[in-house]
Design goal:
The chain has 254 residues and is mainly β. The protein is 7% helix and 39% strand.
Length: 254
């Protein structure tokens, strides 16, 4: 189990590097993955996007982490389930909070740090479409998705530490069977640099590179610290304690 858990830590780090390299080869979903239906009260078109329902999710070894309900949006809270033998526990970086824009809860993302081998690594608060496969020690990035939204919307507040910045990023892609790579169909990205003390609407238009192609995968990343340098992990930039509140995330459709 110990070897598997160390592989898991490396997979976490690989996930960020793979995602941020938008035009390179990445470990996206290339095969259909069935979602487990649950009774969600949220009616927004991102499953669980109201962020009112949360659940304890088993990591495959009997450890549980708090995640948004619906098996679509996920966090990095599973780092907290790592045992001491694997350098754990890691930090909790995403919380449900009653300080919401609407409804019962919102998500609170808080940047933390992790030192599994004695060297501190910045771990941002994350809300997105990553999916952890503990038994195989891998992370699958992205969710099957075939719609073509016009824009991404949500509400946020931000409390950066020491000039930190937050990131909202949406990527639609499609696997190119001829070229054996992923093509970026549409992309939207917004970096938040200033403190925002009251809930503010984010309306982020998607820029389509191919208007006549239907995507097969959505990758959504919301992060409490934006300047992540995964080509040099020991020099990732961000500030521990930066806080990003997020609520009511959805797409505007044609």
């Amino acid at each position: 189990m110990k070897k598997l858990q160390y592989t898991f830590i490396l997979a976490i780090l690989s996930f960020f590097g793979l995602f941020m390299a938008f035009t390179s080869c990445r470990d996206y979903i290339d095969y259909p993955v069935e979602e487990t239906p649950i009774d969600l009260l949220c009616t927004l078109n991102i499953r669980g996007g109201c962020l009112d329902q949360w659940e304890l999710v088993d990591d495959g070894f009997g450890y549980k982490s708090l995640e948004p309900a619906g098996d679509f949006l996920r966090t990095l809270n599973y780092l907290y389930t790592l045992p001491a033998a694997a350098g754990g526990p890691g930090p909790k970086t995403t919380f449900n909070t009653e300080d919401s824009y609407s409804g019962t809860y919102a998500a609170l993302l808080v940047t933390g740090s992790f030192s599994p081998q004695g060297t501190s690594i910045l771990i941002p608060g994350l809300l997105g479409t990553d999916s952890l496969d503990i038994p195989n020690g891998t992370i699958i990035v992205g969710k099957p998705y075939t719609s073509k939204p016009l824009s991404f919307q949500g509400y946020y507040k931000y409390e950066p530490v020491g000039g930190d910045s937050a990131l909202f990023s949406v990527l639609l892609s499609k696997y190119n069977t001829g070229a054996h790579k992923r093509d970026t169909i549409a992309l939207a990205r917004q970096v938040i640099t200033n403190p925002v003390s009251t809930y503010t609407m984010l309306d982020l238009p998607l820029n389509y590179y191919f208007t006549d192609v239907t995507p097969d995968t959505l990758t959504l990343l919301i992060c409490s610290s934006a300047d992540i340098r995964f080509n040099d992990l020991m020099n990732c930039k961000g500030q521990v304690g930066s806080k990003l509140w997020v609520d009511e995330i959805s797409f505007i459709m044609p």
